[in-house]
Amino acid sequence: MALASGVRFAPRALLRPWALLRGTTLGRTEPAAGGGGDGARRFGSQRVLVEPDAASGVAVMKLRNPPVNALSLELLTELVISLEKLENDKTFRGIILTSDCPRVFCAGLDLTEICGRNPAHCAEYWKAMQELWLRMYLSSLVLVAAINGACPAGGCIIALSCDCRVLADNPKYRIGLNETLLGIIAPFWLKDTYVNTIGHRASEQALQLGSLFPPAEALQVGLVDQVVPEDQVQSTALSEMARWLAVPDHARQLTKNMMRKATADRLLRQRDADTQNFVSFVCRDSIQKSLQAYLEKLRQRKG
Ligand SMILES: CCCCCC/C=C\CC(=O)SCCNC(=O)CCNC(=O)[C@H](O)C(C)(C)COP(=O)(O)OP(=O)(O)OC[C@H]1O[C@@H](n2cnc3c(N)ncnc32)[C@H](O)[C@@H]1OP(=O)(O)O
């Protein structure tokens, strides 16, 4: 990811994401409906659909890991690869991230990846989560989240690592970090991202209470930048994108780096310790029990 000035600010020592790939179908390119030239060709993978528009330099990236876009290891990996692909293509300056699943933007960590799994798997999973956050948080592209569904926990992290957030005005589409309600604790880099977005006091309250904010409250606290009727989320995200792209890339990119680098560096300095911390915490019997109970409650809630 080179800046116009030649500065590279994406962490270079990141995992090679394709090493994590199992049974995915990356790199597939197909014409979009009614499409013609290059600008109308879709590409992506099984769980991430990319609709590039070369003319505007903007790609729409859709999460499609039904039913709730839970962040499985495969989805995390495919997101990193799609992001990297767009970043390496000079045609693109911005990405609109949205969901292809009805009513849910992203349900957060895939709890089945950390329930009843061995420590090695949990470590691999957590590294992939760190990787995605680092890549998104420091991306040289403009990232706009078009939040067209519920956005708890890890879903909120994805949205917060974008530059701008547009949320559909539906009381069911709540957003926030609800980790404490699952008996788990947001890691420091998540807490830092929250504080950077909504300030210390609001974060302190929201993190301890595990608050999930409905749209009007999310707007008020500053978690999202716009709340609009559901059918206007995409068009508003495009208008926001135009506003951000009106700024010269090099100036915007260097400013973004100035604002975010310290937060990302903090994780980069202690990535292994953060992984060990995560693994030893989630593998505790008591935490496994509460995660299992939460998952069971989700399953029983159905119907
Ligand atoms: C040191 C510790 C560090 C901790 C790191 C912290 C970082 C992030 C934490 C997390 O992200 S933990 C995950 C938190 N997520 C949630 O609490 C959301 C839970 N899900 C929901 O509230 C709802 O599913 C929804 C997203 C609002 C959607 O509701 P809807 O009614 O549309 O769908 P459901 O019927 O509830 O679910 C369908 C299906 O999906 C399964 N499922 C839902 N969420 C998850 C998940 N996060 N992981 C795995 N599976 C999930 C749910 O059980 C249903 O499954 P089936 O019954 O169909 O088998």
UniProtKB/TrEMBL annotation:
Protein known as: Enoyl-CoA delta isomerase 1, mitochondrial
GO molecular function terms attached to this record: delta(3)-delta(2)-enoyl-CoA isomerase activity
Catalyzed reactions: a (3E)-enoyl-CoA = a 4-saturated (2E)-enoyl-CoA; (3Z)-dodecenoyl-CoA = (2E)-dodecenoyl-CoA; (3Z)-decenoyl-CoA = (2E)-decenoyl-CoA; (3Z)-octenoyl-CoA = (2E)-octenoyl-CoA
Function: Key enzyme of fatty acid beta-oxidation. Able to isomerize both 3-cis (3Z) and 3-trans (3E) double bonds into the 2-trans (2E) form in a range of enoyl-CoA species, with a preference for (3Z)-enoyl-CoAs over (3E)-enoyl-CoAs. The catalytic efficiency of this enzyme is not affected by the fatty acyl chain length.
UniProt xrefs under SUPFAM superfamilies: ClpP/crotonase
Pathways per UniProt: Lipid metabolism; fatty acid beta-oxidation
Gene3D superfamilies named in the record: 2-enoyl-CoA Hydratase, Chain A, domain 1, 6.10.250.170
